[in-house]
Design goal:
Its main location: membrane. This protein is mainly alpha-helical and 493 residues long. It has helices at residues 18-25, 39-43, 47-71, 77-86, 97-113, 115-131, 133-138, 141-160, 164-191, 197-201, 213-230, 246-283, 289-333, 351-365, 370-397, 414-440, 444-454, 456-488. It is built from 18 helices and no strands.
Amino acid sequence: MSKNHSDGVGHLERSIDWKQGLAIALGVPLLILPSLGYLPMYLSAAAILVWGLSVLQGFFQNTAYAELATTFPKASGLPGFAQHVFRTENYKGKYDKGKLIGGFSAWSYWFAWNPVLAIFAILVGGYLHGLFPVLGETFTEYQLALLSGLVIFTGLSVVNWFGLKDGALLGYVLAAISLIPLVVLAVAPFATGHVELANITGNWLPADWSWDMHHILILFGIFAIAQWSACGWETAAIYGPEYKKPGKDVPKALFACGIICFFSYVLVQAAVIGVLGVEGVQAEPISPLIPVALAVFGEAGTVITIIMLIAAMILIIQTAYLGSSRAMHSMATEGNLPRVFGKTNRQGTPFVAMLVTAAFNMALISMGSISAILAAAAIGYTCANGISLFAYVKAKKHPAFANLERPFKAPKGWKHVAMAFGLFNLPLCLVGVVYLNSLEIGWTSTWLGFLVLALYIPLWFYSQHESGRSKNAAAARSSDHDAADLAKLPASR
């Protein structure tokens, strides 16, 4: 069981191995679902190449994160790495700017993962609405999305209340259920001859595509959206404090998940475009896998596919739920959020963070637009990755970290790779996604993204005042204790 500090922040337990971490992260291939129809709208069949390049980008970034995870085994993934590296040791002033930067990275990461719950709850509601006509007579899609979110979040809260080990067990079951339809839908269309290669080669880029600044900014924005899905398997590293052997478990879990993601992202998008053509995908942008299943398997196969995809969506909600709650726990542990968010139960589960995450996503579901929510989340993800990669560069160059043990080491010179991808995220992908948002859905999602990110500033200042009060109270108790000890001494003549 976890032990709680006197300040109310609990420790996470070392209870899982790399296979359990992989099982939880195996929800990541399902992150392609919201964007399967979105990328071809802008890039036609070249969307296949973007997915492949984005997963490769994940290998470059996640190699740095794997080293950070084993260098700082007590830090919780991206949020913990940045907070640990940027804080100033033995800082004497009131506000540590380095600590603010690290904390902002963690908050950005929390906001990047958090909306996964809302996005897939909306998708579940949409699939249920199409699968069971009787539900459509009773509820609207919006009502079904809210109901789906409430039921799923409540169920996962109960399961994860008993600790990450049980959450990983659920991950095993759902991974087996959910990866089957994804693999089948990726491979079967090729095997049955339903894929027309001309649909891919004959429509590689839109007819009006040109390499001007307008299209280059769109491309950066598309990479930001794709990265949110295709690089998300770094979640396997966020459980660094909970692996039994972080030096071996972290890289194993990361790279196994990366290989699975590469083949699934490329093949699923290729299958969808190969069967439906770019125009067919654009006609069914939210759920293009359904007409693919209908073409390959018929009516009965489509029903089975939808049911299994719903199970897959619950798996990715589970992945995001765990990642988001542990990001908040990490911030509270580092003193970057109020201590209440770091409270754990007897099983070591950060239950307050989980409840806040569920409530926040119920509010997001009320927006109703998957595109708006995803675009806002992508803003947070580019910020989190950029700052975390800069943290890796600092951890390699700063003398304070030079002598730390590194059970897993990235190849020599990786700090230059990390710097390049850090700059790719900030500012290029950030500018691109803001530009893309302005074209696609106006400024709503951009303002939402920046508003949620800005909300961190007052929360951080409150947490610093809270820490100051705690230190002053501890100093006062120590002073009273010393005075009492002096009073017990015999008086001198």
